[in-house]
Design brief:
Length: 410
């Protein structure tokens, strides 16, 4: 495998991803890149450097922190290495963590799309040896086009055949279309090696939502009623629709040299579904509130449905969600079977406010300007579901403390 080493990297011109002064690092499919801090081993005080990583379309970026020797402080407030993900493959940066301790050696970061950032910051006090990371492009990616084709073909070395998938493939693609739409997809080819229809070696799985725990789409034509969520061999499933505006595709291979050519599918945005990113605006009454609901409400949604909404309010404002009508969710311990999940922030990792599956919830309010709402059902016959209104919440000001002078008279 080819490897490039960037030593004493400094600033270069900005890029289209909006990171002025960052060193741009292009990651072709057949090469790893090793980056060390300037002056390694050792670094200067008061350093602030950034790197912008870019990989080919429909790929992701994997960064391994192979060595780290920095001033270790609580929450890495002095010297630190910070990794940021370009959410959905766009320059919407989300910090995944700061690293400064030896226990952070071996940290593996995987981007959601084809761009990522790395930031190295030091203060004036203690200096140690520095850091070394290894970055490379891997299969997977985040697709937001309204229609397109997706192939598992990916070369990880100059000697690999571009017509086959990596023999140790661990790939994830997420297709997102506009809110209120669904994803229709059709396999054009399928050649994934496995000894039997249960796909115990290499396989592809499809999920009805963007998360790793989203419900499987059970479409294997060789498995009949005993579906396990895996596709393999060469039997093509019928054209299928998701019930949300997300389709997650995962591919895993067990490392055998005997691999196939993989898969190729075509997808397009269709119909009415649920979920998506909602940007509320105080400057327009049309965008100051938005109604969300489970699919087909007030009729029953499809089996194994999932919808995820990320609601954003203007800076300095909160997001408020008011549940309307009746709340028809099958109750279960811990709301494991179906429910509505609300998180205080914009991602699945944000602080959990609550999961609801019994009585209609009271009004929920975020502490910041983002709220994550997820409807999910793992049932073959789900209940009707829910309906809610999301809107811009009131601005909350800190209390004012008033001081009065009293004059006592005889």
């Amino acid at each position: 495998m080819n490897e490039a080493i960037l030593r004493n990297a400094t600033s270069s011109s900005g890029t289209d991803a909006g990171v002025p002064g960052a060193t741009r690092v292009l990651l072709p499919a057949n090469q790893t890149v090793t980056i060390r801090n300037p002056g390694y081993p050792g670094y200067e005080a008061n350093t602030r450097l950034e790197w912008l990583f870019e990989s080919p379309p429909n790929t992701r970026i994997r960064i391994v922190v192979s060595y780290l020797s920095l001033e270790s402080t609580y929450r890495c407030q002095a010297d630190y290495l910070e990794l940021l993900d370009g959410l959905r493959g766009l320059p919407q940066w989300n910090s995944t963590g700061r690293y400064c301790s030896r226990r952070h050696r071996g940290t593996v970061f995987t981007s959601s799309g084809s761009i990522a950032r790395m930031r190295f910051v030091t203060d004036v006090s203690v200096q140690r040896r520095g850091f070394r990371i290894v970055a490379k492009a891997i299969c997977g990616g985040y697709l937001t086009a309204r229609r397109g084709e997706l192939s598992s073909s990916f070369s990880t070395s100059s000697s690999s055949s571009s017509d086959s998938y990596p023999r140790s493939a661990d790939c994830t693609w997420v297709i997102e279309v506009r809110p209120g739409r669904t994803v229709e997809f059709r396999f054009l080819s399928l050649d994934v090696r496995s000894d039997n229809a249960q796909c115990q070696q290499d396989f592809v799985s499809l999920r009805n939502g963007p998360e790793s725990g989203s419900p499987f789409l059970l479409v294997n034509p060789e498995q009949g009623q005993q579906q396990n969520g895996r596709l393999c061999r060469s039997a093509l499933p019928s054209a299928t629709n998701t019930s949300s505006n997300f389709l997650r595709i995962e591919m895993k291979a067990n490392g055998d040299e005997n691999v196939g050519s993989g898969f190729r599918l075509r997808y397009r945005e269709v119909g009415l579904g649920c979920g998506g990113n909602i940007h509320l605006s105080s400057s327009s009454s049309d965008l100051s509130e938005f109604v969300i609901s489970s699919p087909s409400y007030p009729s029953s949604p499809p089996a194994h449905a999932e919808c995820v909404w990320v609601v954003m309010a203007p800076s300095g404002r909160r997001v408020q969600v008011d549940f309307l009508d009746q709340f028809y969710i099958h109750p279960s311990p811990g709301c494991a079977n179906e429910g509505v999940e609300v998180r205080d922030g914009g991602t699945e990792h944000s602080s959990l406010m609550d999961r609801f599956c019994r009585d209609k919830p009271s009004t929920q309010k975020s502490s910041g300007n983002a709220l994550y709402v997820r409807y999910y059902s793992n049932l073959d016959s789900p209940n009707i579901g829910f309906k809610a209104k999301v809107k811009i919440g009131l601005v909350f000001f800190p209390p004012y403390f008033c001081h009065f002078n009293y004059v006592l008279k005889d």
